[in-house]
TrEMBL record:
GO terms for biological process: carbohydrate metabolic process; peptidoglycan turnover. The keyword Ubl conjugation does not apply. This is beta-N-acetylhexosaminidase. Coiled coil: none annotated. Its EC number is 3.2.1.52.
Amino acid sequence: MVESVFERLPLGQMFMVGFDGCRLEEDHPLREVIERQRVGGVILFDRNVDGRRQNIRSPAQLKGLTASLHDLSPAPLLVAVDQEGGRVCRLKERDGFLPSCTAAELGRHEADPHGPVLAMARELREMGINLNLAPVVDLDIYPENPIIGRHGRSFGADPDLVVAQARAFIQAHHRAGIACALKHFPGHGSSRGDTHLGFVDVTDTWQEKELEPFARLIDHGLADCVMTAHVVNRQLDPDGLPATLSPPVLTGLLRQRLGFDGVIISDDLQMGAISGQWSYREAVQRAVLAGVDLLIVGNNLIRQPDAVAEGILAIEELFDRGRLDVARISRSLERIEKLKKNIQERVHGGKTGNP
């Protein structure tokens, strides 16, 4: 009985994975992940943490790679990058792509959905990418923040400014047929640490106004996805779980209080704030139980080529133990399918995504 349920549920759709290689060779292990495990998406990086090339060398090479990915997938595939601009930019000018500016630089000018961001979004579409893991809507509360403020990744400290700039950023992407992900929920701008490296607690620094950009952009219908933060915030979860693994933060706050019914996407589960405290199986299970729909496994910090297969087994174990029901997973799969359908409609001239 349980096995027949698993056969009907394409659990691989709940994963977005990174991989090595600038070409999809015939023996590339990603082929099986896409064809047989039916992974929901892939995330592309230009370079590894050690500086070596990972997926992106040039515009011509990238177009060939993404064409191969799309052709190989039996279902529409999410092909994602972090193309915020400035420091966090996978399509770099030195590799032949358009120049970009940071969110902080954009924040010093009037928001313009027809400006440089539209050119960037159109380049993403031309390259075969359909999901930009941006914009950052964290408030620049602590300018020396080692992962947000110091790198100019926030539009600014004023929620009105952040909402205006994020709206223009998202509208430009929607015009180009690209979906966006708001990040990092429920707010990373006040942190004093870097969740790539390990445990980060914002309990004493986080402010309620950090929710405003998320809430207002959700209300405006501009939230395709919301990406979770790995920060601990005991103001929101007294148990001290990182937001990615926290039912009170994701289900209680984001789903119920803010009314978000789109795709909740995790930040990379291999980051130190998660992998340093939980095994991969535990992280997958806790994230799903918290309310995550789409789980990122970047394979940039750590190599884990069997991440999708192991992740599927972890979710199946929740079924076996009676901790998860079919309806819950079906809702996640429906949200992911709807996101992909919305992207296709925008690409083919349907919805503009404008409010």
